[in-house]
TrEMBL record:
Name used for this protein in its record: GB1/RHD3-type G domain-containing protein
GO molecular function: GTP binding; GTPase activity
Upper taxonomic lineage: Eukaryota, Metazoa, Chordata, Craniata, Vertebrata
SUPFAM superfamilies referenced in this protein's UniProt entry, alphabetically: Interferon-induced guanylate-binding protein 1 (GBP1), C-terminal domain, P-loop containing nucleoside triphosphate hydrolases
UniProt KW Secreted keyword: no
Gene3D superfamilies, alphabetized: Guanylate-binding protein, C-terminal domain (1.20.1000.10), P-loop containing nucleotide triphosphate hydrolases (3.40.50.300)
Length: 744
């Protein structure tokens, strides 16, 4: 909360100079505008020279200074004077004391002026003290009724039913202070309290027989309705010394009547405790800024009696304040959302929602609850923040794009120089180029603070700058390589040497792909790792090596997705096998087949939809040509239910890769032949074989052939399928769309 402006003395809030219109003092309004705390507004009215200012100074807690006290027959206070002080009991509130000019000043001679001042006081207050001398008599009752009549009119025009007046924002706590009270407090022969004295004074006269008596009853009924919460204090004469009475502010309390001093303390404590913050319709507390604006509207309504425009004025105040709150909430949002950088749309969206919730909380704590204004204002805030969000996002995109292009231009310089020096236009130049390109991508990915457009700018850069260059380099490389050495052919498919040379010498010529990924998938423990070892052993010759970890996994233990390089352009991937093939595991296997899961990382089955989406957004798929291979043990019991699951899975694998899956049936010597089962599923390339394992790694021509034949067939299928051009971006979009659709 903002600190309360320091006021060493009261200031005139509403000016009421003779011959001039009642008006709001702009200096006082500016002071109020600096107070953001709710206001407890306590005002006092009553006849002039009745000691009103002394009571207000006591409430302010000052012994000297403060509101001026009148010691002559001439009234001192003109208009309504204001003093803002810290509330003695409620630290989150500001106590605003309003001292009014005396009613019935003979120098004014205008009861309409009294009515205007009291009406304004009633409308501005959360607690109203009516100060009178001697007793509660008929003149006092009539004066209070007459001067508050205009306020009643305003209350009626504000659509409050009589039964709702207790909660009406225009009905303040009412306290009647009777000064110099000398009567005995006895009613009907028994001792009475001050409150009972007040209620008796406002009680209707029974046996009404004259118009005058009927009029008096009307006054009392009306006042009880207008002031449903009432309290009375009676103060004895403070001293028998008339000089002290005339100079109360200069007389020490010990020289005053103890009863008077005690009652004064009781009065102050009651006001501190019972007077609540000024409220408006809808339960909205009034701050200094609002009170100043309300005062202007009330003055116009009271002085012109143009009540019809009051509601419009109050509505405008609410709307203006809510517009201000919308602005501050939007600035809060903007300050938060601009305070950090982002690398993905998902990061930005998540942080946006956090900032939006904070802005909404701020708005709901501050907004003015006036009829339908809240709903309109909140909707307006949401629209404003949405526009702000779009502007921030565009700013982030522009900034990220500029930074990423600058980084790529810098990283691209070595390739430009190499191109100018014709380093790529040689036999084998394509491989040199691919390594240089991959190095650019690698360095780009580790650059910090690239922002939200990093991936799209990279892909655009590769497509526009590197793909055309790569096409020319690849063509040049093929032409030069064919001149040096004609492409290898397999004349005898039964010759393992020809097969080995063909596989090792194979060059991938389909753009933009730079390698073939042979993706193994299937149930855990069915021999995928052993199949990887067998392919590498058959192709590489030499000694058998447990590169895939058969010995450390003991079957069904592979949890990482590991790639093993067979040749410069062929990599075989040992994906994590599934156990149940349920929807969660299936989704991750599909993600592996789509190359969404990076190589050489652990695969976790149980992930949430949010984590899956984050994985899709962050995935940087290399332009790899994917060949799906389903590995299944011949000893597996493939019943009807499992057959349907596997068939669905294989069809989805074909949809995602555009290649009919290859089927590897391991353990052919210890299981039954399930070739026909997979043919019925529509599969064509089916291989029954025995893997090399740690306990059986004797190399033979017959044992090598199934693996070499498989690898040669894979290459033939690649040449067959990719004889037509394929759009890699469209292929990846199709894969991601499939994964999003099947996300649970």
């Amino acid at each position: 909360m903002a600190p309360i402006p320091k006021l060493n003395q009261p200031i005139c809030l509403i000016e009421n100079e003779p011959g001039k219109k009642i008006c709001l003092n702009q200096e006082a309004k500016q002071i109020l505008e600096k107070i953001s705390q709710p206001l407890v507004v306590v005002s006092i009215v009553g006849p002039y020279r009745s000691g009103k200012s002394y009571l207000m100074n006591k409430l302010a807690g000052v012994k000297t200074g403060g509101f001026p006290l009148g010691h002559t027959v001439q009234a001192k206070t003109k208009g309504i004077w204001m003093w803002c002080v810290p509330h003695p009991d409620k630290s989150a509130r500001t106590l605003v004391l309003l001292d009014t000019e005396g009613l019935g000043d003979v120098h004014k001679g205008d009861k309409r002026n009294d009515s205007a001042i009291l009406s304004l006081t009633l409308l501005l207050s959360s607690a109203l003290v009516y100060n009178s001398i001697g007793t509660i008599d008929e003149d006092a009752v009539k004066t209070l009724y007459d001067t508050s009549e205009l306020s009643e009119c305003i209350m009626s025009r504000s659509s409050f039913e009589e039964g709702d007046l207790v909660d009406s924002p225009f009905t303040p706590l009412f306290v009647w202070a009777v000064r110099n009270f000398s009567l005995k407090m006895v009613l009907e022969g028994r001792a009475a309290t001050a409150d009972e004295y007040l209620e008796n004074s406002l009680k209707e006269i029974s046996s009404v027989t004259t118009p005058v008596a009927e009029r008096r009853n009307f006054f009392r009924t009306t006042l009880r309705t207008r002031f449903p919460v009432r309290k009375c204090f009676t103060f004895e004469v403070p001293s028998t010394d008339n000089d002290k009475i005339c100079n109360l502010e200069n007389v020490p309390e010990k020289q005053l009547s103890p009863e008077f001093v005690e009652m004064m303390e009781t009065f102050c404590q009651y006001i501190y405790k019972k007077a609540e913050a000024k409220m408006l319709e809808g339960g909205q507390v009034v701050t200094g800024c609002i009170l100043g604006q309300l005062a202007n509207s009330y003055i116009k309504a009271v002085t012109t009696k143009c009540i019809a425009s009051l509601e419009h004025s109050i509505t405008k105040i609410f709307l203006d304040e809510n517009n201000s709150i919308i602005k501050s909430s939007t600035e809060l949002y903007k300050g938060k959302i601009m305070s950090r950088s982002f690398d993905t749309l998902q990061e930005f969206q998540t942080f946006h929602e956090s900032c939006l919730n904070e802005a909404l909380t701020h708005f709901k704590e501050k907004y003015f609850k006036y009829r339908t204004v809240q709903d309109q204002s909140e909707h307006q805030l949401m629209e404003t923040i949405e526009k702000q969000k779009e502007e921030v996002w565009k700013t982030l995109e522009v900034s990220s794009e500029k930074k990423c292009r600058k980084i790529l231009d810098r990283l691209f310089e070595p390739i430009i120089k190499a191109q100018e020096q014709n380093k790529y236009h040689v036999a084998g130049g394509h491989n040199i180029f691919v390594k240089a390109r991959d190095e650019i991508v690698k360095k780009f990915h580790v650059e910090p603070g690239k922002g939200v457009k990093a991936e799209s700018v990279l892909q655009d850069f590769l497509k526009k700058n590197l793909e055309p260059m790569e096409t020319i380099i690849c063509q040049t490389d093929n032409n030069l390589s064919e001149k040096i050495q004609p492409p290898l052919k397999v004349h005898d498919p039964s010759d393992p040497t020809q097969l080995t040379n063909y596989i090792k010498g194979y060059k991938l010529k389909y753009q933009p792909y730079h390698r073939i990924l042979i993706q193994l998938f299937g149930f855990a423990g069915h021999g995928k790792s052993s199949f990887v070892n067998s392919c590498m052993f058959a192709l590489g010759g030499g000694h058998f090596n447990d590169v895939a970890g058969e010995g450390s996994s003991y079957g069904a233990k592979t949890t990482d997705r590991i790639g093993h390089k067979l040749t410069d352009c062929i990599t075989i991937v040992d994906n994590r096998g599934f156990g149940k093939m349920d929807s969660s595991e299936a989704w991750h296997i599909y993600a592996q087949l789509c190359n969404i899961v990076p190589l050489n990382q652990i695969v976790v089955w149980n992930t949430s939809s949010t984590e899956k989406m984050q994985q899709l957004i962050q995935a940087v798929s290399a332009p790899d040509l994917i060949v799906p291979v389903f590995v299944c043990s011949s000893s597996y019991s493939c019943d009807k239910a499992n057959s349907e699951l596997i068939k669905t899975f294989l069809k989805n694998a074909q949809f995602l890769t555009e290649i009919l899956p290859f089927i590897i049936l391991t353990k052919k010597n210890s299981g039954k032949d399930q070739t026909e089962t997979f043919k019925q599923m529509g599969m064509e390339q089916i291989y029954r074989l025995e893997n090399y394992i740690l306990t059986n790694k004797m190399a033979t021509r017959g044992n090598h052939m199934p693996f070499l034949t498989f690898l040669k067939d894979v290459l033939d299928w690649v040449d067959y399928i990719y004889r037509r051009s394929v759009n890699f971006e469209e292929q990846q979009l199709k894969r991601k769309t499939f994964l999003i659709k099947n996300m649970t």
